[in-house]
Automatic annotation (TrEMBL):
Keywords from the named record: Immunoglobulin domain, Signal
Ig-like domain residues: 273-376
Single GO BP term: antigen processing and presentation of endogenous peptide antigen via MHC class I
UniProt keyword annotation of rRNA-binding present: no
Gene name tied to this protein: TAPBP
Record organism: Leptobrachium leishanense
Protein name (Swiss-Prot/TrEMBL): TAP binding protein
Length: 424
């Protein structure tokens, strides 16, 4: 290829990349939301009102404002300064906005954030909280917006709490890290609180006063990485050993003076089922009825499917077998479940060599688990290689036993003769 052609292609690539970056930046320079309010009218029940909102992001370095797009009637317009950069990176989102009333919190791990007892004048302006879900990767953000420049339509990002996922899976008995991160700007006063909620009950797992660097509440088996919290805003909660009781919703709350934001992460505990197929080996006489038992134990969650398959001699595929009987679930001490799957078969000579399989499908194993046994019907064919190996092993054991007994007998008579000769 001619050198000038290479230069032209390189230039076109650079221009294309620059155009793409500008396009994405333009797309991320604005986004839409819904202001959710509870309204009431005289002699009517309270209703939820959803008002469309349009946000134009301001470049924090130059404070330049984009010209607003043509808005639908009734749409509120706000200009937002985002020094966190989190809103700039959004592409495809769903957003809900609610009004926020800044106030003190009486929790022990938050009191130090407002020791001075004098709130700033800015708390009297408009405050909102955004709950944002990224539709592409399902990341979640909670964003606190406060007033800027004494203008009602100008807001600034004060706090961002975000998580890399809203649903996570953790293996039973292994360590796990529940994700939660924050951006708090230059604010040095903050507190982290982790709660767990399941079956209508909730409890505090961890509470950390970052301002005083003091752990206020700590549940056994839970911990924070304090250097990561202060340097990177990484407030992930580490579980030393996942238990079934951890399944539920983890609530990560970040407190700043007078404001807070929260993210919810649903944790699902999974345990890989242990599967075995009995009897082993699978031998039968012609016409004998057998019961295959598939033992599926110590799995979580409860939802599971078990089926039997058979690959008959001469066929290269497996077919489902009907009339499978499932036992009721048993509840194990560690919170997992177990069950049995039974299949009645009759050993026929033409089924010699048939391959019976028990296949288990569970969320912990996307590809499924399979255990198989081969049916051997007596008298249908001569001894197989496995039969020969078994016979050889039995013969070897018999030979060893006889050799041992022979040595014992010889030793016994030799001792008897020695005693007799000594007595003479």
């Amino acid at each position: 290829m001619h050198p000038s052609t290479i230069y032209k292609l390189s230039l076109l690539s650079l221009l294309g990349a620059a155009f793409l970056s500008m396009f994405l930046a333009a797309e991320a320079a604005s986004f839409s939301c819904f202001l959710v309010e509870e309204v009431s009218a005289e002699n009517k029940p309270r209703t939820i009102q959803r008002t469309p909102v349009h946000f134009e992001l301001i470049d924090p370095s130059s404070l330049t404002m984009n010209a607003p797009v043509d808005l639908l009637p009734g749409t509120k317009l706000y200009y937002v300064t985002d020094t966190s950069g989190k809103l700039m990176s959004l592409v495809s989102t769903y957003c809900e906005m609610t009004e926020l009333l800044p106030q003190e919190v009486s929790l022990d791990w938050v009191r130090s954030l407002t020791d001075e007892k004098r709130s700033p004048l800015s708390l009297g302006g408009p405050w909102f909280i955004l709950s944002i879900k990224d539709l592409l990767d399902e990341n979640g953000l909670s964003v606190v917006l406060g007033p800027l420049l004494d203008k009602k339509d100008h807001l600034t990002v004060s706090l961002v709490v975000y998580s890399s996922s809203q649903v996570m899976y953790a293996r039973l008995g292994e360590p796990a890290s529940v994700p939660c991160s924050m951006w708090r700007g230059q604010q040095s006063r903050f507190a982290v609180e982790w709660r767990h909620r399941a079956l209508g009950e909730g409890k505090v797992l961890y509470a950390y006063d970052g301002h005083q660097d003091h752990v206020r509440e700590e549940f056994s088996g839970c911990r924070l990485n304090f250097p990561a919290v202060h340097s990177r805003g990484d407030a992930a909660l580490t579980l030393d050993k996942v238990e079934v009781s951890h399944q539920g919703t983890f609530l990560c709350s970040i407190y700043l003076p007078y404001v807070r934001a929260q993210r919810d992460i649903d944790l699902k505990v999974i345990a890989l089922p242990k599967v075995s197929l009995q009897p082993e080996p699978l031998f039968a006489r012609p016409g004998e009825e057998l019961t295959l038992t598939c033992d599926v134990s110590h799995f979580h969650p409860l939802e599971i499917s078990v089926e039997y398959l058979v690959q008959l001699p001469g066929e290269n595929y497996s077919s489902p077998v009907p009339d499978v009987t499932l036992s009721s679930h048993t509840f194990n001490q560690d919170g997992t479940f177990s069950l049995y799957a039974y299949l009645q078969i009759t050993a026929k000579p033409e089924h010699h060599g048939a391959r019976y399989s028990c296949r288990v499908n569970h969320v912990s194993v996307p590809k499924g688990l399979t255990r198989s046994q081969t049916l051997h019907v007596a008298g249908v064919s001569g001894p197989s290689l496995e039969d020969g190996m078994c016979l050889f092993a039995v013969a070897l054991l018999l030979y060893g036993a006889l050799r041992y007994l022979n040595n014992k007998v010889k030793s016994f008579f030799r001792v008897s003769e020695d005693k007799k000769s000594k007595s003479e």
